[in-house]
Amino acid sequence: MFGPSTQDTAYQQEAARRLHLPFPLLPDEGLALARALGLPTFEADGQTLLRRVTLILRDGVIEHVFYPVFPPDRNAAEVLAWLRAHPA
């Protein structure tokens, strides 16, 4: 599990510590990944940020997309239910 982020590395490191993230943040400061995958973005305080999206990948192929992720507190359960219904 990874979390892409458009912020710089210093911000990512601080956010990961502050939020106690159980996964690493992947740098995408130049938006190369976001553009290549057509990920949803928004603008805030002059920055382009990624909207919440969950991608399920198997063998390097996007198999399923959860978007929009709302409400976010239900997303983990939805993803687990989907994975149980679609075993590898």
UniProtKB/TrEMBL annotation:
MF GO annotations: oxidoreductase activity
Domain Redoxin: 5-80
Name used for this protein in its record: Putative thiol-specific antioxidant related protein
Native species: Deinococcus aerius
